[in-house]
Amino acid sequence: MRVTWVTSDKSSPSMVGYGTSAGRYDYMAQGDSTSYSYVLYKSGKIHHTVIGPLEPNTVYFYRCGGEGPEFQLKTPPAQFPITFAVAGDLGQTGWTKSTLDHIDKCKYEVNLLPGDLSYADYMQHKWDTFGELVQPLASARPWMVTQGNHEKESIPFLMDEFVSYNSRWKMPYEESGSSSNLYYSFEVAGVHVIMLGSYTDNDPGSDQYNWLKADLAKVDRERTPWLIVLFHVPWYNSNEAHQHEGDDMMASMEPLLYASGVDIVFTGHVHAYERTKRVNNGKSDPCGAVHITIGDGGNREGLARKYKDPQPEWSVFREASFGHGEFQIVNSSHSLWTWHRNDDDEPVRSDQVWITSLMSSGCRVEKRHDELRKRLMGP
User: Fold this and answer.
1) pLDDT for residue 379
2) How far apart are CA 338 and CA 328, in angstroms?
3) Is 242 a catalytic residue?
4) Of the residues 59, 175, 223, 344, which has the fewest C-beta atoms closer than 10 A?
């Protein structure tokens, strides 16, 4: 587990003490640090320290920098069942706080965020206040995120893209063979999760495209029967907002996801909720992925309330309300997806569906995947 924190004290060590008993830190881990300048803003010292190896499904107590408050985290299980909380386009409004309060009441092991975190939008101190806002949850469970358009923050001739995001939210990209923090993968329990970048090159021949091909070729569906993908801009979207913005990425990458039998795709960007049937190439396909847009985390721009009429045949449920989702994978073949409005009490399920994995559905994923692997790796 990588622990990240920020200190104003530039001499503070990048050290984490941890153990399985409160107040006892039997293990110590040393990490590294970075900082960045953004026009007139200067960040604090940003520490990144990997602790472990850790036992699965275990509570650890830890302290950062040799002083300060004690935190505790629970590691995910090594096998099913496992539950993911999912919410995109968070921001830091009263609606965001409501979303976080709802997530905090559900029993989940890992939080997935498909882009648009702080909505700092060039105002760098808002990255600090966002960290303070999510700390109660992000210190206790792993938060796995990818970038959205609000993370770009580039200024021509002055600031590169994603400087703040890459400095603060370091994901395991190097561990998954990626050359960029904007796309990576990880495995937890029996799930292979791929995080892609909607705002970095994704055309055939690009670094991201080649990395995705190689990562998909390595997936072992015996060990990880579920395959999930997240990115920011939806490919299947019947809302009036952000139409066709993901078309190029869809054209280049959907064939790879389809050939590998991706089960479910989570996206954000559109500030509303929508769930599709299994789809591929713009229409229903029983061997395609379920696409879920969950960009309704609570940002300051409000909800996207206008939908196309009539509703496309592939769109099952759509609603412009703030909320979050829970993806409970019960075993290698069955999972339960539920969507929860902020306006309701957390246990209320506004949308729910049981999803059968493609590996167990007769879609011959193994055959498609083996053919893909042969094409990618050569004879």
Assistant:
1) 47
2) 8
3) yes
4) 223
